Amino acid sequence: MGGKILLANIDIPGIRGFDVYRANGGYNSVTKALREMSQSQVNAEVTRSGLRGRGGAGFPTGLKWSFLDRKSDKPRYLVCNADESEPGTFKDRYLMHHLPHLLIEGLIISSYALGVNTCYIYIRGEFKYLVGVLEKAIKEAHQHGFLGDRILGTDFSLNIWVHPGAGAYICGEETALLESLEGKRGNPRIKPPFPAFKGLYGCPTVVNNVETLAAIGPIINMGGEAYSKVGRGKSTGTKLISACGSINNPGVYEIEMGLPVEDFIYNPEYCGGIARDRYLKAVIPGGSSVPILPAELILNTAKGERRLLTYESLADGDFETGTMLGSGGFIVFDEDACIVRNTWNLTRFYHHESCGQCSPCREGTGWMEKVLYRLEHGEGKKSDIDLLVRIAKNIEGHTICPLGEAAAWPVASAIRHFREEFEEHVLHPAEVIEKERRL
Amino acid sequence: MEHNHIINHPQFTRDGSPVAFTPEVFTKVQALISRYPEGQQKSALLPILHIAQEEFGGHLSVDTMDYVASLLDIQPIEVYEVATFYSMFYLDKVGKYVIEVCHTGPCTISGGEKILKHLQEILEIKSGETTQDGLFTLKEVECLGSCGTGPVMQVNTEYYEKLTPERVDQLIEELRTFANKDKPNDSAWVEKFF
Ligand SMILES: Cc1cc2nc3c(=O)[nH]c(=O)nc-3n(C[C@H](O)[C@H](O)[C@H](O)COP(=O)(O)O)c2cc1C
Ligand code: SF4
Ligand code: FES
Q: In terms of residue numbers, what domain contains A434?
């Protein structure tokens, strides 16, 4: 597998420890950035690289950094979003588990570029065992002069702290995360003001995903220009895709942006085809929040072009026939999967995770869960299907944070592409239940 | 760091017994608080509640929460509203081992429902209940971030992945044997699969 940027060294024994990591070129980017580059040169390289946020939204990282209020005399913060709780997504865990120093390296350079002296890694509470892994890496970096006061003898000082959450998907949303980091309930804030002006403790703050920040070291090493040549069009570089569901090789893969979806699913280097020789039925390619697509639309766009793993290609066709790259949580369904059951299951997730601040989200997710439950359990009515579509529409665009949409899209897209299956549940409930019992 | 001074005043429960961290744990808590800027000691609330839950019987009683509030110099309500928001904080008594089985989509594709049913059968409890001997509490939780190695469950802080009913039987036996000793450290299991 060529072309790896983040995971290039992952197979080297002992790469989790500082010495082996350093011996393989680790922290060279820090030396380069701090000794040879100004803050604005680092910012310029990141902008040039075309790197886009890997947390889900794909917002250009250089642009986000340029919004940071640098005129304010308040301290600035960098917060690393390691809350990873989107069903189907397990790439950040993999990265932190195997290459903790790659993240630390990225945090140091990013903090330097942003003029930050305190950085927090907000990690989901369930990943408690990783807190130790990260704290060990931080300690090693301190011991070798890459963290703490006057790093490498420069004027730049930085401390990184790991902060565990306590079980709440919504804390992955950046403003909920900041609330949580301040010791409060994870209720998303109304934007504006954006974190770039009023973030943690009301100070200018940048929130970035683990994978985004891990890419900063390699970008400084290879240069933004070279990074931008990897990938395709505006989807530059590589992306970690966590693949799960009915495939032969579940796992985390680093792909060059632009890899055809079909190759990703069937190539033995990646998913290795559908498990138990079944047929591909559907894919949710970017974590549970993005629209589900049936086999024919995930392999080729409605225009008949091959679907590629890029932000643009996956979104081709918008909500009618497209989806999104999202977090890269790639969930594969085979012919035996019941779309109604899966939609009910995911809606239960969103209902459980809704913070409850806005009524369309709090009530809407609850209603959708109830209606889907009754469809799945043979008690549904034909009108329930349109009722679901209406509820989903009423949530969309009427909430404080995007969790509302994240809950609405999976339902709307499942009905759009698999309406017959929902109708089947209404018309022949006994047979459907019997079939599922046997599986 | 010289800010965020805190004093370890014990809190007295209704029956008059004191609740307070041991000096060693208190030192740890002080260090945690010093990670946040002056006046932002409330930021340490989640990390401290994790410690408090571990130290004081596996769940957060009102007395424990009041004690944490007094430590951080915040109102008790500020602790209650946080403790009730996050799923990893337990307000009621739980067993020595809290078994949390993932019931979200990807795990159900790989057989999570079977594992849950199997646990309910061998422990003879429903989800949300605790066995009579106080050893096991069974819970269903949402995605644990291990969807590629499902079915997955977490026992206290350890991950157990690629579960089969046989592996579950074996694990429950191990935990029963370990119950009177220290917690088993099973991170080798994580290493193996992840
Ligand atoms: C409901 C919800 C959950 C989210 N969960 C995560 C998450 O677990 N990890 C993450 O990095 N971003 C998550 N995000 C996106 C963040 O709000 C934010 O956009 C991201 O951390 C920015 O980093 P990036 O620009 O590097 O992608 C979530 C957003 C929403 C609306
Ligand atoms: S959309 Fe849902 S999760 Fe987001 S703020 Fe509103 S209620 Fe909370
Ligand atoms: S769905 Fe079970 S760990 Fe993600």
A: 340-438
**Complex ipTM value:** 0.94
> Is B156 in contact with B118 (CB distance < 8 Å)?
no
B187 vs B151, residue with greater confidence: B151
Contacts of A315 (CB under 8 A, 6+ apart): A322, A323, A324, A325
Q: Can you give the C-alpha Rg of chain A in angstroms?
A: 22
CB contact under 8 A, B146 and A90: yes
At A228 the three-state DSSP class reads helix
pTM above 0.90, yes or no: yes
A13 falls within a domain: no
Nearest CA to ligand 1 atom 12: A55
Cβ(A186) – ligand 2 distance below 6 Å: no
Q: Please judge whether B148 and A244 are an interchain contact, meaning their C-beta atoms are less than 8 angstroms apart.
A: yes
B191 CB near a chain A CB, below 8 Å?
A: no
Range of the domain at B49: 11-83
Question: Which band of pLDDT confidence, cut at 50, 70 and 90, is reported for residue A25?
Answer: very high
- pLDDT single digits (tens) B128-185: 999 999 999 999 999 999 999 999 999 998 999 999 999 999 999 999 988 766 554 4
Are B49 and A166 in contact (CB < 8 Å)? yes
B97-102 and B136-141 as β-strands: parallel, antiparallel, unpaired? parallel
Nearest-CA neighbor of B48 among B9, B16, B89, B1? Answer: B89
Instruction: Say if A218 falls within a structural domain.
Output: yes
Residues 358-397 in A contacting B (C-alpha not used; CB under 8 Å): none
Query: Does residue A350 share a domain with residue A309?
Result: no
Query: Is some CB atom of chain A closer than 8 A to the CB atom of B50?
Result: yes
Instruction: Indicate the helix (H) or strand (E) that contains A207.
Output: strand A205-209
Look up the CATH number of the domain holding residue B138.
3.40.30.10
Please count the residue pairs, one from chain A and one from chain B, whose beta carbons lie less than 8 angstroms apart.
144
Number of CB atoms found within 10 A of residue A15's CB: 18
